[in-house]
């Protein structure tokens, strides 16, 4: 990316007694590519776009997380100037000196250590994908602590930052186990089970699993014996059965909860998958529980 590279100073962001700053920003085309005299962690919360890092252009989407060392130039750009799908980034910046007493917690041979504590060696920037939402809760907690500034928030921020950096280092030592399972369908199944109640599409699941939609559908059918739609329906109906068994919610509420608004279609699908209507399923389950309770009471009275 060509153009003048701006320099950002930490003194613009840091408060008197705290060398950690956390923000949440909607990216635009206003900010120039820049370097800074602090270490920065960026987490893509929403949307998609591009991250210019030195001379590289990296497509990004939700779950991408970067660690940018001192002296590395970068800037984020949304997919288009129209803000129909905003690119939202969490930013955590800090001075490595503030973590000096914690240096022994990290491996001096790791890329993380070099990027944070040895900037003079022109350490490389780091990029990970938070496929299983391990970084996200830490980032959210940091942002919340920074905004609220409750008593002792400085200590909590520091501990969360150490946890965040430790996660980066862990990805180095166990990249396959922690960030990129060899079977990409694990990512797809994880995504489906987390978002089954929403109007998810093949493309969304394929993107999350870092596959093309066509390749994902072929691999999914070959591995599970089911199409994406069939598998999603099974997950939803299983959840319906659980809710019919364990709650007093109406059938209509349960159908809506798992992602079905068309009640005629829902009733037809439920009967096709289970052999009974939702009402019959609930009555059957309640009958079994009643018999079980009667037997239990009888045994206790002996």
Main sheet summary: 5 strands, antiparallel
Beta-strand content estimate: 15-25%
Instruction: Give the ordered list of helices and strands.
Output: EEEEEEEEEHEHHHHHHHHHH
Helix content: 40-55%
Q: Tell me which oligomeric state these chains represent.
A: single chain
Mean pLDDT equals 86
**Counting H and I runs of at least 4 residues, what is the number of helices?**
11
- CA radius of gyration: 25 Å
Strand order of the largest sheet: 2-9-4-7-10
Topology summary:
Layout: E1 6-8, E2 20-26, E3 34-36, E4 39-46, E5 48-53, E6 56-61, E7 64-68, E8 74-78, E9 88-94, H1 111-117, E10 126-129, H2 136-148, H3 153-173, H4 175-178, H5 185-195, H6 202-208, H7 213-224, H8 228-246, H9 251-257, H10 263-274, H11 278-301
Helix pairs in contact: 2-3, 6-7, 8-11
